[in-house]
Fold this sequence. Notes:
The protein is 42% helix and 20% strand. With 436 residues, the chain is of the alpha+beta class.
Amino acid sequence: MSAANETRTIRLESMTRVEGEGGLRIEIHDGTLRDVKFDVFEAPRFFEAFLRGRSIREVPDFTARICGICPAAHQMSSVQAIETALGITPGPEIRALRRLLYCGEWIESHALHIYLLQAPDFFGMESALTLGKAQPELVKQGLEIKKIGNEVMNIVGGRSVHPISVCVGGFWKVPRRGQLLELVPRLEWALQASLDTVRFVSGLKLPDFAPNYECVALSHPREYAINEGSIVSQLGLDIPVRDFEQVFLEEHVAHSTALHSVRADRGSSYLVGPLARINLNYTHLPPIARKAAGERGVAWPCFNPYAGIVARAIELVMACEDSLELIRNYCEPEPPRLEYALRAGEGCAATEAPRGLLYHRYRFNDQGIVQSARIVPPTCQNYRRIEDDLRLILPAILGRPDAEIVDTCEKLVRNYDPCISCSTHALRVSVDRNQA
């Protein structure tokens, strides 16, 4: 029987580096792609459920446990949603300190993904351990940049993983100016290392692949948006955060326990994350980051998902540059947190987690007890887009051996930097070949 008449199913039983357990099923019939499904089998997390009945004062500490890599993102979205419902607005000093905490998270998360998770793909190596043996100085640099991001989080947030200083209205405890100034030499080194990172990733050979994305991100008129802004896209979308659930819809799909997010009006996928952010907010990059972005041979806007590693490196520069500016201008908030009276309310907020737009909504009673919670992480918003990309890239490679198809699919998925929670799982691949 000719290869054209062959029917085969390629299964990745457990794909590495996705949020929870996930896999991939590719069905090929008569030499053409019949179907592709990105299956995500997340272990039940129950955060939206067990936040019900909890005090709003507990919410920041609970939501920080959602992720060990981007806990500050969940804290910022949750406290700002609650503050919106309470009608309180922390002052500029608290706002600046929160942005600094977020910058620390971007630094450690982006460095982790660039150097440890995605760089091995470009060297044909199975892991960062293998890459570290071949290019130890490269991996050491990535680890050191990540360490500096963790140090920022530790000083501002009280610890580097699952920070404890954030609270509704501000911070339980704020750092002294001298503590932050001690970080300046470290961040100055990280800034130069981040510029080296941009040069490094810009020299990688990227596959030629440019789908027609709708990029979605926060946008702010005066800064590169992280903690606040309106939700925009290059297709003309410009809405306040409170309209998120009218424009974006989460759908259940039969083949996955994870929800897929789509545009509610047309059921289409969209892209969130660093590539979308730079495409939409290029002009708001701070000077050093914008200069780096303009010199590295990528024409912005760019719709090649493989250029996401370049976008992350540019944001790494941005986060270091912003951190230095925030520290040099730092004034200790006085008071460190605003007092507030409990009242019934409902509020929402969106921030930019390292992986993209993150939305939280809460409703609570007049005792400050949560009645309902809604959390839409960026990884779930990208799932449908990932499947769409796989459908576009697979037809051209179906004639290759299964191992090459598997490798290509994994590399494509890793462009999205799916949640790190299962990144250390071994990859198990089974291939079923059936004769038609």
